[in-house]
Each structure stands twice: as C-alpha cells, then as structure tokens.
Amino acid sequence: MISKKMEEAINQQINEELYSAYLYLSMAGYFAEQNLMGFYNWLFVQYHEELAHAEKFFKYLIERGGQVRLTAIKEPERTWKSPKDAFEAVLKHEQHITGKINELVDLAEAEKDRATFAMLQWFVNEQVEEEANAQEIVAKLEMVGEHKQGLLMIDRELAQRK
Fold first, then answer.
1. How many structural domains does the chain have?
2. Cystine design at 24: which of 10, 46, 68, 86 (Cβ 3.0–4.6 Å)?
3. Angle CA(126)–CA(105)–CA(21) in degrees, nearest 5?
4. Which tens digits make up the pLDDT trace of 133-160?
5. Under 8 Å CB-to-CB from 47, ≥6 apart: which residues?
6. How do residues 55-110 score in pLDDT, each as one tens digit?
C-alpha cells in the first residue's frame, strides 16, 4: 500500500505529465501553422511520449493500491516568437519536470518507499535524455540563427523522429 502523501504527489505528477503532453500538442499546432512539419512531427511524437509517462504513473498508483485523482490541466501557451524560443521553452519545461521527479525521489527516500524509489529511477534517467534532446535542438537553432536554409535542414531532420 502506498502512503497518502506519496499518492497525492504521484497524482500531482500525473497532472504534470498530462500538462507536458498538452503543451507539446499546442507546440505541434504552432509549428503546423508555420509549415514546419518536421518540428510538428518531433513535438507530436513527444506529445505521445508524455502521455505514456502519465500512463506509467497512473498504472503504478493503481498497482500500489492508490486512488487516481485527475485534476484540471492548465491551458498551455499557443504561440512563440520563433522556433528557438519554442525549444527554449521545451528545455525550460523539461528542467521543471526534472525538478518534480527529483522531488518525488526525495519523498520516496523520506518515506522509505523502496518500490516507488525504484520505479522513479526510470524517470530520472528519462529526464537526462529529455533535457539532452531539447538542448541539442536549441543548440542547432542557435547555430543556424536567422538562416532559413538551416532552419529547413533542422526541420527535415526532426521529421525523421518516430
């Protein structure tokens, strides 16, 4: 059985993951409006990945005898100044999620909840990858600056993500 404190924290994390999905779906729409379908593709794949993260927490909570309580998801932004601005927002958001995962790890340690601590290690490792992917795209966008050809090359690369 999971503690009420951990149950509440995991329910909050489910909301964070669903917001992440909502944010990335909003960003995908923004890039579709800009006719940057590679960026759209990358974010649409990311949207599905965030839903899978929420589902992982959802199922875990049920397996541990907890009660899932879904709450309202805040409205995400809809527009950004540029592709670079959007991906800087992705990076900042992933850093925020890393902080939330770390808070869960701290709580699991404090509660001596070894099962939750073990499950969270997957998310700790996942966040390293999430931040690195976002940082790589930001760096490439910084590299190309205002050059449209460079932007189109990045767009073509991001279209390859499955």
1. 1
2. 46
3. 45
4. 999 999 999 999 989 999 999 999 999 9
5. 21, 24, 25, 28
6. 999 999 999 999 999 999 999 999 999 999 999 999 999 999 999 999 999 999 99
Q: Which of 82, 99, 77 is nearest to 24 (CA)?
A: 77
Write the CATH number for 86: 1.20.1260.10
> What span, in angstroms and rounded, lies between the C-alpha atoms of 64 and 115?
9
H helical segments located in the chain:
4-33, 37-63, 83-110, 114-144, 148-158
What are phi and psi for residue 112, nearest 5 degrees?
Answer: 55, 40
Do residues 128 and 111 make contact, with C-beta atoms less than 8 angstroms apart? Answer: no
Q: What is the Cβ-side half-sphere exposure of residue 16, based on CA atoms within 13 angstroms?
A: 20
Question: Rounded to an integer, what distance in angstroms lies between the CA atom of residue 64 and that of residue 159?
Answer: 39
Q: How far apart are CA 93 and CA 98, in angstroms?
A: 9
User: 101: domain range?
Assistant: 4-158
End-to-end, the C-alpha distance of the chain in Å comes to 37
Q: Would you give the DSSP letter of residue 1?
A: -
